[in-house]
Amino acid sequence: MGTATAGKSRGATAWRNWAGNVTATPARVVTPASVGELREAVRRAAEEGLRVKAVGTGHSFTAAAATDGVLVRPQALAGIKEIDRAAGTVTVAAGTVLKDLNRALAAEGLSLTNMGDIMEQTVSGATSTGTHGTGRDSASIAAQIRGLELVTADGGLLTCSREENPEVFAAARLGIGALGVITAITLAVEPLFFLTAREEPMGFDRVTAEFDEHVAENEHFEFYWFPHTGNCTTKRNNRSQGPAAPPGPVSAWIEDELLSNGVFQAVNSLGRGVPAAIPSIARVASRALSARTYTDIPYKVFTSPRRVRFVEMEYALPREQLVAALRELRAVVDGSDLRISFPVEVRTAPADDITLSTASGRETAYIAVHMYRGTPYQAYFTAAERIFTAHGGRPHWGKVHTRDAEYLARVYPRFGEFTALRDRLDPGRVFGNDYLRRVLGG
Question: How much is the pLDDT for 7?
Fold first, then answer.
């Protein structure tokens, strides 16, 4: 899409998300070069009766950013605005891509405390949908926010923190785009540190039996289960004194490029064409990854490239429900004719105080299920969602799910607090769309 300002907008152009499962044709696209231009774009849209949605890099699998009105591309609003070493914070423009932020922070000798496993999203897109990694003590990227600035429905500019507009701060850190267009975010940072990662194969029965123990003993624990097998691969990330000892180039290429991207793409394509081959492929793939240990700065350990495109559903469960739900999922897969070529990912997060965070008010474990792009996913996701909701699960705001406001109001004790704030900040639903109508109500 070409660059356009509030005063010189580009006309209707189809937009498609990363996975290709969501498309939209906005009336116009704007790429504001300043906060002033963004405010004017919102004011003008409201006057014309058009709705406004900001879109980052399209890594959400839902239609959270889809609109037939004005699509805001915030990519020109990018870069670090201020580093406050005394306060331990960095303020960044909303369109900054996490990859650029992580590299810039590292050059300054700083790092986020925790992050997800990919870094292609914009900072505002990642936080607004609840992007998270795994952590015993450290939570999602949104939970690391210390302040933010957003353009409201009347074109005004509102800043919030724990001290300033705290009721907005409680909600807007993860606002699903419903409260305004974020222009800047202040994040907590700390001096750059080292993480030592230990990746190790482990049987399904053992890892589920020892799950609580692994979570308690490691700062960051996660594992992947390969459906149609009893095999898992585990990953433990813990702080260390260093020095950096990254994987050797051959090991890194075999593990990260060949097995996780190149060959993985090929076997998924084979599995899409010949589903009956998937269980055999899964058994081979799950045994191909060997144990390894390496040490590096955080973003090089937490994140990895993801070039194989997929569709994903992820639910946040009360942590004590994780093992039961995962065992039920395995039983469903084993007892059906489903053929699943992607591993199931399990992560954790501590409770946080963000109104609509998937970890709001409770210790949380996440189960993520994936299907290769272009493969029918509805039967698998429907079966998985039935299990997750029976355990009080909360769907990830940026991933495939079928829940509505009635269900979500039951699993989020502060749901009414969020919708009341939305009524105050955006009574005319300038920032509304079909997805928000479903998940938040009218």
Answer: 40
Q: Is 341 helix (H, G, I), strand (E, B) or coil?
A: coil
Find the Cα–Cα–Cα–Cα dihedral 177, 178, 181, 184, rounded to 10°. Answer: -70
Cα-Cα-Cα-Cα dihedral sign, residues 14, 16, 21, 22:
negative
Dihedral-angle region of residue 361 (phi above 0 means left; psi in -120 to 50 means alpha; beta otherwise):
left
Nearest to 32 by CA among 47, 20, 45, 50: 45
* pLDDT level of residue 439 (50, 70, 90 thresholds): very high
Q: Are 224 and 124 in contact (CB under 8 A)?
A: no
Peptide bond just before 243 cis, omega within 30 deg: yes
Stated length of the chain: 442
CA atoms within 13 A on the CB side of 196: 10
How remote is the C-alpha of 156 from its chain's centroid?
Answer: 28
Q: Which of 49-53, 113-117, 373-377 has the lowest mean pLDDT?
A: 373-377
- Position with higher pLDDT, 305 vs 22: 22
Name the CA dihedral angle for 95, 81, 115, 422, rounded to a multiple of 10 degrees: -60
Helix/strand/coil for 163: coil
> Which one-letter DSSP state was computed for residue 360?
B
Torsion of CA 122, 303, 401, 431, to 10 degrees: -10
Helix (H, G, I), strand (E, B) or coil at 62: coil
Q: What is the pLDDT of residue 270?
A: 67
The share of the chain scoring above pLDDT 70, in percent, equals 90
Is the whole model's pTM more than 0.85, yes or no? yes
Residue 130, both tokens = 């609840």
Does 170 score more than 70 pLDDT? yes
237-248 residue pLDDT tens? 999 999 999 987
